[in-house]
Amino acid sequence: xxxxxxxxxxxxxxxxxxxxxxxxxxxxxxxxxxxxxxxxxxxxxxxxxxxxxxxxxxxxxxxxxxxxxxxxxxxxxxxxxxxxxxxxxxxxxxxxxxxxxxxxxxxxxxxxxxxxxxxxxxxxxxxxxxxxxxxxxxxxxxxxxxxxxxxxxxxxxxxxxxxxxxxxxxxxxxxxxxxxxxx
Length: 183
Fold this sequence. Notes:
It holds the Pfam family LBP_BPI_CETP_C. By secondary structure, the chain is an alpha+beta fold. The protein has 2 domains: 1-75, no CATH class; 78-182, Bactericidal permeability-increasing protein, domain 2 (Super Roll). The chain contains 4 helices and 10 strands; from the N terminus they run E-E-E-E-H-E-H-H-H-E-E-E-E-E. Strands 5, 6, 7, 8, 9 and 10 form a 6-stranded antiparallel sheet that branches. Strands 1-4 form a two-stranded antiparallel sheet. It has a two-stranded antiparallel sheet with strand order 2-3. A hairpin with a 4-residue loop joins strand 2 and strand 3. The longest helix is centred in the middle third of the chain and has 13 residues, at 62-74. The mean pLDDT is 81.
């Protein structure tokens, strides 16, 4: 798929050939790149509604998304550092945090740029629903002041738990998504 994940796919049953179509069932498992370990998830069978009026119909199970989440988590894709260059675009500094959190204002009288370290603490959970899918992610964010000598000083760390629903629709032959932060 990319530098972090690979997909292994195989037929899960013999192809069914009918006059107007071929039914081809594949089992796809996503692994961290170069690490073909057993998946911690169990494949659950699922049914697909009849879509005989479509030229091509693809269906993805929760298993595919769960193994994808596991592979990217294992590879560290959910850990990122937002450095000064990006933060300066948003103008984030210790002065901004100091106006919200009094302890930061006491520590940092001189405004310094900040660095944000975002880390997933657990494998994100992806659940398929009728018209959308839900992503639950638990992580932490560490806020660090970037001092004049380029060293960093941790200001605070906070835990974050997010639950979002994502719906996909096709409008004017374009795939459009809507994101809703549930909590």
